[in-house]
Amino acid sequence: MSSEMESPLPRPTNVQRVKFIWRILLISNLGLGAYMFLRSRKKDKQLETAKTTKEVPTTEPAKTIVEVPPIPVEEEEPLFLPTIEPVKVQKEPIPWLDLGMMLPYHREVEAGKERLLEGAKRCVPE
For residue 17, is it within any domain? Predict the structure, then answer.
């Protein structure tokens, strides 16, 4: 009976265990946000005061324009010379290319070329 009468203390949850740490994090986060907000606001005020206190430019006497002759430019040799390489031709067929798949397309292209040539011959007077 004594065990029934004594109720065990409820175990605190994780949030309750670290309640103090959560409060510190929240307060420091709010403080940092306030600091950053006030700092940017202070900079904005400084910019506004700088704009309003800008001196009005006074009229300066006319300046004389002096023409400077252009500096002669010496032609320099290029740092690198372009080299032309011959086109490399692959002598062996590509093993993974299925030529049977390309054959209908090839026939269609050839037929199109022939139709174009016939149409061009009809347009040109003999």
Answer: yes
- How many domains is the chain built from? 1
114 is a domain residue: no
Residue 100 lies in a domain: no
Q: Assess if residue 35 is contained within a domain.
A: yes
Q: Which of 108, 88, 110, 106 is nearest to 97 (CA)?
A: 106
43 DSSP assignment: H
Give the global pTM. Answer: 0.29
pLDDT tens readout for residues 34-67: 999 988 888 888 877 877 776 555 666 677 888 8
Q: How far apart are CA 43 and CA 105, in angstroms?
A: 69
Assess contact for 10 and 17: CB atoms under 8 A.
no
Angle at Cα 77 formed by Cα 73 and Cα 80, nearest 5°?
135
Angle at 12 between CA 6 and CA 16, to 5 degrees: 150
